[in-house]
Amino acid sequence: MLKEQPYWNPVLETLAKENIRDLQLRKFRKIFEWGYEKSKFHRALYKEAGIKPEDIRSFEDLRRIPTVEKSMMRDIQRKDPFPYGDALCVPLDEVVEFRQTSGTTGQPVYQPDTWQDWEWWSECWSYILWAQGYRPSDRVFIPFGYNVFVAFWAGHYAVEKIGAEIVPGGVLDTQARILKIQELQCTAMMATPTYVLGMADTARKMGIDPSSLAVRKITCAGEPGASIPTTKKRMEDAWAAKVYDHAGATEIGAWCFECTAQSGGLHVNEGFFLVEIQDVETGEYIEEPGRRGKMIITALDRQAQPCIRFDSKDIIEWAGEPCPCGRTFRLIKGGVIGRADDITKVKGVLLSPSAIEEVVRGLDGLGNEFEVIVDKDGDIDRITLKVEIIKGREGESKQIEARLKDQLRLKTNLGYILEFHDHGTLPRYDVKARRFKDLRGK
Ligand SMILES: [Zn+2]
Question: In this predicted structure, what is the pLDDT of residue 229?
Answer without folding.
Answer: 95
